[in-house]
Design brief:
The protein is of the alpha/beta class. The chain has helices spanning 11-17, 35-48, 62-74, 77-92, 153-163, 183-193, 217-225, 239-262; strands spanning 101-110, 119-121, 126-136, 141-148, 173-176, 196-199. The radius of gyration is 19 Å and the shape is globular.
């Protein structure tokens, strides 16, 4: 036994997420690794931002934790867990399992020297990568794509929408800001997905800053990501690894909220 870290899963949180992990195959030797400890190691890195080799020695070997994190990323399991938890949170809140309205936006972040692909965002004056996310009206993550910062807003939005892994049968409208305006973009979304592409515009008589309650929920999601030190910059060599850490940040948040509701 070891002393727990505040990033560890509680017993109730583990009960919620454990059925969603991949089951052992009927072929070969059953795994002997404690998946709860694997997740505890992943969430430790996510919250504290240390390197893999600097994980505390009372956790599993970092090579084991890294192996499963990469396996679950490559097989799509992390994105699948995010989807299942999102549906559960929405149902517990009295909503339909899938959203009819979504909000989309991007965030430019710096990279480290060890990161792979990167670019320069001339608007934000940031050399690094851009995180494009789409969320529902609760701020829960529907999809994410990470790409070089020099790719524009509309091109990045197309990459995100084309990368969505799960069908959104109820979705009717996506809210975006003025950076995504353009008749060509509106028509492209309508032709390819049959969704409305609504660009928020500033009223002629508007003075100062006014929060748009539905579209600005995506900014709150970015604020949630900012609570994880691993996401303060993009430390990952592969963009796919960056995307999985963003999913994991929302997974940790949803598991905590679901456990609090049932405690």
């Amino acid at each position: 036994m070891r002393h727990p870290y505040d990033s560890d899963l509680s017993d109730r949180e583990w009960e919620i997420i454990s059925p969603m992990l991949s089951q052992s195959s009927k072929w070969g030797r059953p795994p002997t690794v404690d998946f709860r400890e694997v997740l505890n190691g992943i969430f430790y890195i996510l919250k504290n931002g240390c390197t893999w080799s600097n994980l505390p020695h009372d956790l599993l070997p970092y090579s084991t934790i890294y192996f499963y994190k990469q396996r679950w990323t490559n097989t799509g399991l992390i994105a699948e867990i995010n989807r299942k938890l999102s549906e559960q949170v929405r149902l517990d809140d009295g909503r339909e399992a899938t959203p009819s309205l979504a909000s989309l936006d991007s965030q430019s972040v710096k990279t480290t020297e060890s990161a792979g692909s990167r670019g320069f965002d001339g608007g934000k004056k940031i050399k690094g990568r851009k995180r494009h996310i789409i969320v529902d009206t609760m701020g829960l993550l529907i999809g994410v794509v990470v790409h070089t910062a020099n790719i524009g807003e509309r091109a990045g939005a197309k990459l995100l929408l084309e990368s969505l892994k799960f069908p959104l049968v109820r979705l009717k409208k996506i809210l975006v800001d003025a950076g995504y305006s353009g008749v060509d973009m509106t028509e492209w979304v309508k032709d390819n997905f049959n969704w409305l592409w609504e660009v928020s515009s500033r009223a002629d008589n508007q003075k100062g800053f006014i929060v748009e309650s539905k579209r600005w929920v995506v900014e709150r999601t970015f604020a949630w990501l900012g609570k994880c030190r691993r996401l303060s910059k993009d430390y990952e060599f592969y963009t796919q690894s960056s995307e999985s850490f963003i999913y994991l940040a929302l997974i940790r948040l949803m598991v905590r909220d679901l456990a609090a509701l049932t405690s």
